[in-house]
Automatic annotation (TrEMBL):
Species per Swiss-Prot/TrEMBL record: Fimbriiglobus ruber
Gene3D superfamilies reported for this sequence: 1.10.287.130, Histidine kinase-like ATPase, C-terminal domain (3.30.565.10), PAS domain (3.30.450.20)
Protein name, UniProt field: histidine kinase
Keyword Kinase: yes
Histidine kinase domain segment(s): 137-359
Keywords: Kinase, Membrane, Phosphoprotein, Transferase, Two-component regulatory system
SMART domains per the UniProt record, alphabetical: HATPase_c, HisKA, PAS
Listed GO biological process terms: cellular response to phosphate starvation
Pfam families (alphabetical): HATPase_c (PF02518), HisKA (PF00512), PAS_4 (PF08448)
SUPFAM superfamilies: ATPase domain of HSP90 chaperone/DNA topoisomerase II/histidine kinase, Homodimeric domain of signal transducing histidine kinase, PYP-like sensor domain (PAS domain)
Amino acid sequence: MTDRLAESFAQVDRDRKQLRTILSGMVEGVVALDNEMRVLFANERATQLLESAQDQIVGRKLWEVTRQRAVQQAAEKALAGAGPYREELDWTGAADKSMVVYASRLPGPNSPGAVMVLHDITEIRRLERLRQDFVANVSHELKTPLANIKSSVEVLLDGAAEDPVTRSMFLSEIDIQAERLNALVADLLSLARIESGTAILEFEAVAVEDAVHACLDRHRTRAEVKGLSLSGVALGGCPPTLAVWADEEALAQILDNLVDNAIKYTPRAGRVTVRWEATAEQVSVEVDDTGIGIPERDVPRVFERFYRVDKARSREMGGTGLGLAIVKHMAQTMNGSVRVAASEVNKGTTFRVCLPRAADGK
C-alpha cells in the first residue's frame, strides 16, 4: 500500500514537471487564476508579455500585475462563466505591441478559477500592414500608366488618329506608359523571386573593374545627353584582377540600378563616380553623385519598396520605386550589404555596396 502511494506521488510529480516543461516552452503566455483573480501560475512567456518577473506575479491579484483593463475584463468575463472569451488589444507599456487574450473558466460546478492565454500578434499585424501597403502601392503604380494609356486611346478613337502628328504623339505616350508597366512588372517579379529564395544565382569570381566599366558603358550615352561626367576609380592600389564572389548578372543589376538612379537625380553638368576598394575579406563599391541628395529623415527608408523621397519627380523620371529594394535584397542574397554612406541635400549621395571578396585562384 505504501509502495503504491509512493509511486502515485512520484507519478503526480513527474506529470507536474512534464506539464511545467511544456508550458515553459510555449510561445503563448499562460496564466492560471483563482476565483478571486489571484495568479496561481504563470509560465515564462506570460511574465515576458506582462512585463514582470515571475516572483512578482504568482500570488498577486491580476490588477496588481497589469493595469491593462482589457486583460482584467477578459478574466472577469471568464470567471463569470460567460464562456470562452477573446479580446484583441493594443498593449501600451515598455514596448507597444498587439495582443490577443483568450480566457476561459475552468470546467466543473465549483470551478476553482480560470485560465488565460496571451498571444503576441505584433509581427502578424506588422506583416498585414506591409501587405496592405504593398497592395495599395502596386494598385496606384499600375493605375497611373493605365489611366494615361486609356485617355490616349480615347483621344485617338475620338478622331485624333486622322492627324498624323497628333496620332504619333499619343502613340508615343502609349508606348512610354506601356514600357513603364513592363518595367514595373519586371521589377515586381525580380523582387518576388529574390524574397522567396527562388532566384537562381550562379556564384563565381567576378572582376570588379570589368563589371564597373561594363555598367558605365551601358549608361554613358544617357550621361552624355545630360552633360554628366561618368568615371570609375580603383582606390588603394586595387589590382585589375580584384574580384567579388557573386552572381555576375545580379552584380550587374545592382550597379545598373545605382548608376541609373545617380544619373536620374544628378542635374546637368554634374558628376557620377564609381569607386571600389578592398580588404582581405570584402570589396566595397561606392556610387557617388553630385545630385539632389536625400534628406536625413528619408535615409532610413530609401530601401523600402515603393518609397520615394520625391514622388512627383520619381514618377516623372519613370522610376518604379523598386530599384533600391532590389539592390538591398540582391546584396543580402549574395552575403553582402548596401547602405547610404553619405548624403547631403543639393550636394549629392554616396551608396556603398559591400560583397565578399573572391579568394585568389577561384
